[in-house]
Amino acid sequence: IKTVGGITKKEHGIIEGCTLVAMFDNHIFLSGNPEFPRHIFYNSIKYDGTGIPDATYFGQLNYYVEGMGEAPVVAMIPAGDSLLVLKSDGDEEESLLIHTARTTSSDLKPKEYPSSRGHGGIGCLGSCINFRDDPLFLSRFGVDALGHVSTKYRRAIKHRSSLVDVRLLNCDLENASVAEWNGYLLILTGGKIFMADSRQVFNDQNGDTQYEWYYLEDIGIYRG
Question: What is the DSSP string of the chain?
Answer without folding.
Answer: ----TT--HHHHHHHHT--EEEEETTEEEEE--TTSTTEEEE-EEEE-SSS-EEEEE--TT-EEE--SSSPPEEEEEEETTEEEEEE-S-SSS-SEEEE--EE-S-SS-SEE--EEEEE-S----S-EEEETTEEEEEETTEEEEE--S-TTS---EEE--TTTHHHHTTS-GGG-EEEEETTEEEEEETTEEEEEEEEEEEE-TTS-EEEEEEEE--------
